[in-house]
Here is the input.
Amino acid sequence: MIPVKNDPIDARLAETQKELLDLKKFANSEFIGIIKELGFKCELCARCCTKEFNDHVFLLDSDLERIKSIDPEAITPAPYYEFCDQNGRFYVSGYALKTKSDGSCFFLENKRCRIYESRPSICRVYPHMLHREADETGKVDWRQISGLNEHGSYHSEPDDSTCEEIARDTRDYEEAYLKQMIDFFEAVKVHFKKNGLKHVQRIYDRKMREFLKGECKIEVFVYCKSGFEEHIVRQE
Here is the structure.
């Protein structure tokens, strides 16, 4: 297979590799300062466990087996598939938790998590995830996000050890997530080269329009444990 100029997989891979390097360079003291200034305190409203506030709960490979052992029906291919080959098959970087018909998490019951002690990594660090965005001057850097001022309170004064623990756990999560994405992009590259495939945006867009209208089911290859698992997905 001849390499394609400006290949979207290469572009996403390079972007994610740079993001991981930038994350590693991000000063821990600055991150701890953000956490301390934020002063977030959970008020047990459970809003973060609904699609109204969080689109989906992405599962790291390290979460997957634990969730499967609790209830294998709890997982589903993560939404927002990254690629689609010329045969109309989609590829996505991992699994997510299912949601119920009311938009709440599969494991949420009476506003409480049924698996709190075994909850996924992203739930443990929420809302202290970081992402890259520009400030008012246009400078792009790592910033605090996730439902700011939409739930919880922001007037607590966490001590230094608590802030350090949050920073460490969140950094570990973010690095694990980016490494899983890098592994996914590299695996897709190998799979596409081996099988003479390529990403075709036009087919992606057409198939997704048909799928969202309920006109077809789609074939999705989910990245898991260094390989792909095939699923047939129908619009609910």
Observations:
- The chain has a mean pLDDT of 89.
- Residues 160-195 form the longest helix (36 residues).
